[in-house]
């Protein structure tokens, strides 16, 4: 895989995917998007999911619970008709980016989607 | 950035501006599908076929600084890409083709640097400087295009960032002044935030002399993100808020200011906006209890 567009198009191939975007959560900036955004708008969703991502990422309540401490890896929000997955991209330089995937709940397999998203974010930054 | 604002009045408060001439020029250049560099003392925006392909500002760490600060690339590897790929305007492509970076890494790092620098080009920290208006046609940057961004997207993002700063803590005086943690900042910070939290990194890098822009450079981190963290730290009462002129004695071009922390602190007790500075001092005192 190479680059943002390839990453997004592979995310859209995950069963049940309705939309995917790569977001810089410092400001809620959409770096790239594919498919639909909730409310037909990627930008609004990016701004709102960024707030959630920052609160989770910066809060130690989620990371100090175990011996093997590390940053938050992903967030899963379930709603009646949909799943929303936020997977943080871990880079070896300073960044604040996550991959966001909006899934149709009736068609998606949450565990599988999460596993695929993990591979996509790792692949995005592998030389 | 040789002097802070005379008062604590927000000086970049209105989200409609960045200097209309530059905004209008950019829209025109986008319509013309122009190629070249809009440049001035505060930095440059590079366009190719009307889209923004690169931005640079003395305030924002560039791609090389970001990749080498945390050890992702060695300085030698970066220099090699600049010297061998630069002459053909494709230093970025060189890194990817030679397996030094993935395409994704280059895109993420470059986009972050582009939007970061564009913010400081269109919203200069220095009150006496204007965004650039001179356009040098056909100028290209040695990094080469990575992922072009529409002019409108850059302008939207600049406005959003300005609003984020204002929402976090409407006090632009902290943007240019040395970041001085309050005496018990470390204790009050406690274990409430994850180690990955940007505010913690900023607080740890604040030695009482470095400005936010200098902290960003030390950390190889987005200058805007650092500014936002500094505003949030100010809102939390964890750093001092400068109140008078002379609070900022340094410029982003000078990474190692000779201004001792005590002199800066003394300057901050100076004249200017007495009501506001008094309020800040009262707040600081209350929060220090």
Helicity range of the residues of chain A?
A: 25-40%
Strand portion of chain B, in percent?
A: 5-15%
> How large, in whole angstroms, is the Cα Rg of chain A?
14 Å
Tell me, what is the CATH class of chain A? Alpha Beta
Biased composition (Low complexity) (chain B): 1-16, 259-272
Region (Disordered) (chain B): 1-21, 241-272
Protein name (chain A): Roadblock/LAMTOR2 domain-containing protein
Architecture overview:
Chain B: Residues 1-21, 241-272 are annotated as: Disordered. Chain B: Residues 1-16, 259-272 have a biased composition (Low complexity). Chain A: This is Roadblock/LAMTOR2 domain-containing protein. The complex is a heterodimer of chains A (127) and B (289). In chain A, a hairpin with an 8-residue loop joins strand 4 and strand 5 (97-104). Chain A is globular and about 35 Å long. The longest helix of chain A has 16 residues, at 42-57. Chain A is built from three helices and five strands; from the N terminus they run αββαβββα. A five-stranded antiparallel sheet of chain A has the order 2-1-5-4-3, sandwiched between helices. The mean pLDDT of chain A is 92. Chain A starts with a helix and ends with a helix. Chain A has 127 residues and is of the alpha+beta class. Chain A has one domain (3-124): Beta-Lactamase (2-Layer Sandwich), CATH 3.30.450. Chain A is 32% helix and 28% strand. Chain B is an alpha+beta fold and 289 residues long. Chain B folds into two domains: 20-166, no CATH class; 173-288, no CATH class. Chain B is built from 13 helices and five strands. Chain B has helices spanning 20-31, 63-69, 75-85, 91-97, 103-122, 151-168, 173-176, 185-189, 198-205, 212-219, 223-235, 261-268, 274-288; strands spanning 36-40, 43-48, 51-56, 134-137, 149-150. In chain B, strands 4-1-2-3-5 form a five-stranded antiparallel sheet. In chain B, a hairpin with a 2-residue loop joins strand 2 (43-48) and strand 3 (51-56). The longest helix of chain B is centred in the middle third of the chain and has 20 residues, at 103-122. Chain B is globular and about 60 Å long. Residues 1-18 and 245-274 of chain B have low confidence and may be disordered. Chains A and B meet through helix 1 of A and helix 2, helix 5, helix 6 and helix 11 of B.
């Amino acid at each position: 895989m190479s680059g943002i567009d390839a990453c997004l198009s592979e995310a859209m191939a995950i069963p049940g995917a309705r939309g995917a975007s790569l977001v810089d959560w410092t400001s809620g900036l959409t770096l790239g998007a594919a498919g639909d955004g909730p409310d037909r708008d990627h930008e609004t969703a990016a701004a709102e999911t960024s707030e959630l991502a920052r609160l989770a990422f910066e809060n130690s309540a989620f990371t100090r619970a175990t011996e093997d401490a590390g940053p938050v890896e992903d967030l899963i929000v379930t709603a009646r008709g949909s799943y929303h997955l936020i997977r943080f991209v871990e880079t070896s330089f300073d960044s604040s980016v996550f991959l966001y995937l909006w899934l149709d709940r009736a068609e998606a397999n949450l565990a599988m989607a999460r596993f695929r998203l993990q591979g996509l974010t790792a692949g995005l930054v592998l030389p | 950035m040789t002097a802070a604002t005379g008062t604590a009045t927000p000086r970049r408060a209105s989200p409609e501006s960045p200097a209309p001439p530059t905004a209008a020029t950019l829209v025109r250049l986008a319509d013309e599908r122009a190629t070249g560099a809009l440049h001035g003392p505060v930095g440059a925006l590079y366009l190719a076929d009307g889209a923004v392909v690169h931005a640079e500002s003395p305030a924002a760490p560039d791609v090389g600084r970001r990749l080498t600060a945390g050890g992702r690339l060695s300085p030698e590897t970066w220099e090699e890409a600049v010297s061998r790929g630069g002459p053909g305007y494709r230093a970025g492509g060189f890194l990817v083709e030679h397996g030094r970076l993935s395409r994704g890494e280059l895109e993420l790092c470059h986009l972050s640097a582009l939007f970061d620098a564009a913010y400081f080009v269109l919203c200069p920290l220095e009150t006496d400087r204007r965004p650039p208006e001179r356009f040098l046609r056909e100028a290209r940057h040695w990094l080469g295009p990575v992922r072009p961004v529409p002019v409108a997207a850059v302008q939207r993002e600049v406005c959003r960032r300005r609003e984020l700063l204002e929402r976090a803590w409407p006090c632009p005086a902290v943007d240019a002044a040395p970041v001085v943690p309050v005496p018990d900042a470390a204790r009050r910070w406690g274990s409430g935030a994850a180690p990955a939290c940007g505010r913690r990194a900023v607080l740890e890098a604040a030695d009482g002399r470095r400005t936010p822009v200098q902290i960003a450079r030390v950390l190889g981190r987005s200058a805007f993100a650092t500014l936002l963290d500094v505003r949030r730290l100010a809102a939390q009462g964890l750093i001092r808020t400068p109140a008078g002129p002379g609070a900022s004695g340094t410029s982003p071009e000078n990474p190692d200011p000779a201004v001792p922390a005590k002199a800066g602190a003394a300057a901050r007790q100076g004249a200017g906006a007495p009501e506001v500075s008094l309020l800040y001092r009262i707040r600081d005192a209350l929060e220090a209890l």
